[in-house]
TrEMBL record, chain A:
Keywords: Heme, Iron, Metal-binding. InterPro entries: Cyt_c-like_dom, Cyt_c-like_dom_sf, Cytochrome_c-type_DH. It comes from the Bacteria. SUPFAM superfamilies: Cytochrome c. This is Cytochrome c. Gene3D superfamilies: Cytochrome c-like domain. Transmembrane segments: none annotated. The keyword Transport does not apply. The keyword Nucleus does not apply. Residues 38-127 form the Cytochrome c domain.
Automatic annotation (TrEMBL), chain B:
It comes from Pedobacter panaciterrae. InterPro entries: 6-blade_b-propeller_TolB-like (IPR011042), Beta-prop_PDH (IPR054539), Quinoprot_gluc/sorb_DH_b-prop (IPR011041). Residues 46-426 form the Pyrroloquinoline quinone-dependent pyranose dehydrogenase beta-propeller domain. This is PQQ-dependent sugar dehydrogenase. It comes from the Bacteria.
Length: 147, 431
């Protein structure tokens, strides 16, 4: 009984914290999946160090060179495909929401499973995006598949 | 007695009238039947006495352009629009232009006019179109394919071009790599030994203007060690090719232990090179550090940000701050602008991205004074505020990005923008 109470308490506090943080930006948080503030903070740290130089602070990318990470099918869509992009990089003649981008994305396989999970979760829940979190175990599974 | 007085009076009156009407003719491009600057100078910030108008806005990625004495403008588009890769416009007397047609269903950057031909490039080929006496393309559907089979990677794929006065075409073949790393732009990824990409990319190749279907076998690698060149021009004063290199990126993201974000934003320099046949500008083995004023060994090839590179690599003629992306170079030979601009270089800086998280820079046209074919004195920003506001420039979210440059026969300076396809015309209107 005591345990259940503590869990409820933690969840409520977590929810309030998240709500307070995103107030004014998006109101449709909570319920489906609660992304903890610490995951977002870690994700942002990884983003600033390894992704920002190409995809920019606002996630808007660079015209003709680096694609935006705002509501693209890659960011919001299939998790496996997204995790593979982070692990292996991307340099293909593809259209990303109607535009082509000429730069290459290097592999970020040197990041730890948790770092990849956090940064992708951060991307999926920033710049106006809203999508489920990615867990370290999912990254781990896909990394293992590769070998 | 009376007669002898009358004659000089009449004569001076005639001289006076003649001078006056001449003055009128020389200013006619500004009064009534000449380009009229927009009230806001098309949003640009210019030196005192200059004005600008927006000639047209194409809604397409306008790259390089040429303007004929007859008031036709040929603009090369990065990607063709409605199956037209070259857009043709005609100017009316107030300077505004209407699209009159288009041809050439291929994207690209390079376009140049010389001795009765229009030259234009896709990302792998160069075509030329014969012009009539009015500088109109005679048969837009039947160009001569003079160069073919040039390598084009995913990055630095455009082929800029210029001609000399001896029937040669110079074409940039940029390299599809940042610094010839084993893993392009990868973290601490080393350089590939000897960089084999240099055999067919990362240089300027020379071809014959009037021969068909030339490729690497028929061309000459005129200069090497140039990562990517977009802006280039032939200096008529000393009969020499000048190019603006796009310097390497990612010093911090690939080598965080050696370069902090600030250093990585500032260096390496964007370099203007004066080229002779056989020159080597050193990519990927070195880069030019405009703060130390030295050629520095690239970290991919054993550099530690201080070690100096082999002196066989050429020095730049001018070194500009990093990452500003020089996309247009033009030596000004016109008579409209004040004397100091004559034979100097205008450079269109497309604007940076690889300075993040530091503020972005560029999005302007710079003037570099020249004397006797050599840079002389400091460069200055000539036309600014293509971005719209300083904040938009700093964030890299520019409304317009300057790309191509051309000179009108009256001495106006034309600038393209490849965000919205604006074509600007800058005129001098001080009396």
């Amino acid at each position: 009984m005591k345990q259940v109470l503590t869990i409820i308490l933690i969840l409520t506090i977590g929810g309030i914290k998240l709500n307070a943080q995103t107030k004014g930006k998006t109101k449709k948080t909570v319920q489906t999946d609660v992304v903890s503030a610490s995951v977002l903070a870690n994700g942002q740290k990884v983003y600033n160090q390894y992704c920002l130089s190409c995809h920019m602070a606002d996630g808007g990318g660079v015209q003709n060179m680096n694609p935006p990470l705002i509501k693209t099918t890659y960011v919001l869509g299939d998790k496996t495909r997204l995790i593979k992009i982070a692990l292996n990089g991307l340099a293909e003649e593809i259209e990303i929401d109607g535009e082509v981008y000429t730069n290459v994305m290097p592999s970020h396989g040197f990041l730890k499973d948790q770092e990849i999970a956090d940064v992708l979760t951060f991307v999926r829940n920033s710049f106006g995006n809203k999508a489920s979190a990615i867990k370290a175990s999912e990254v781990k599974a896909i990394r293992a598949e590769k070998k | 007695m009376k007669k002898s007085v009358l004659i000089p009076v009449l004569l001076s009156a005639m001289v006076f009238i003649a001078l006056y009407s001449f003055k009128d003719i020389s200013n006619s491009h500004l009064k009534g039947n000449g380009p009229i600057p927009d009230a806001d100078n098309a949003g640009l910030k210019l030196p005192e006495g200059f004005g600008a108008l927006k000639v047209a806005e194409l809604g397409a990625k306008a790259r390089h352009l040429v303007v004929t004495p007859q008031g036709d403008i040929y603009v090369k588009l990065a990607r063709s629009k409605e199956e037209k890769g070259i857009i043709v416009l005609h100017e009316s007397s107030d300077g505004k232009a209407q699209v009159t047609g288009g041809f050439g269903n291929y994207g690209g950057t390079g376009i140049y006019l010389k001795d009765g031909y229009l030259y234009a490039s896709s990302n792998q080929e160069v075509f030329r179109y014969k012009l009539d006496a009015q500088n109109k393309v005679i048969d837009p559907n039947k160009p001569e394919k003079i160069i073919t089979g040039l390598k084009a990677g995913r990055q630095h794929e455009t082929k800029s071009l210029v001609l000399d006065n001896n029937g040669n075409v110079y074409v940039n073949i940029g390299v599809n790599s940042n610094s010839c790393q084993e893993q392009d732009r990868g973290l601490r990824s080393p350089g590939i030994e000897g960089c084999p990409l240099l055999d067919s990319m990362a240089g300027i190749w020379q071809f014959k203007a009037k021969e068909l279907n030339q490729s690497y076998g028929q061309g000459v690698r005129f200069a090497t060690g140039l990562r990517n060149v977009v802006g280039l021009d032939w200096n008529q004063q000393n009969n020499q090719l000048f190019v603006m290199q796009h310097g390497r990126d990612n010093l911090n993201s690939s080598w965080p232990e050696l370069y902090n974000e600030k250093e990585s934003a500032e260096v390496p320099a964007e370099c203007l090179y004066a080229l002779k046949q056989g020159d080597n500008a050193g990519w990927p083995f070195m880069y030019y550090d405009q703060i130390q004023h030295k050629k520095i060994v690239a970290p991919e090839y054993g550099g530690d940000k201080k070690k100096e590179a082999d002196s066989k690599f050429i020095d730049p003629a001018v070194a500009f701050p990093g990452h500003m992306a020089p996309n247009g170079l033009l030596f000004y030979t016109g008579n409209m602008f004040p004397e100091k601009y004559k034979n100097g270089a205008f450079i269109a800086f497309h604007g940076s991205w690889n300075r993040a998280p530091e503020p972005q820079k560029g999005y302007f046209v710079v003037f570099q004074p020249f004397k006797d074919g050599k840079p002389s004195g400091d460069w200055e920003v000539f036309a600014d505020n293509f971005a719209g506001t300083p904040e938009k420039a700093a964030a890299g979210r520019a409304d317009h990005r300057p790309c191509g440059l051309a000179q009108g026969s009256d001495g106006s300076l034309y600038v393209t923008d490849d965000v919205k396809g604006a074509i600007y015309r800058i005129v001098y209107n001080k009396k």
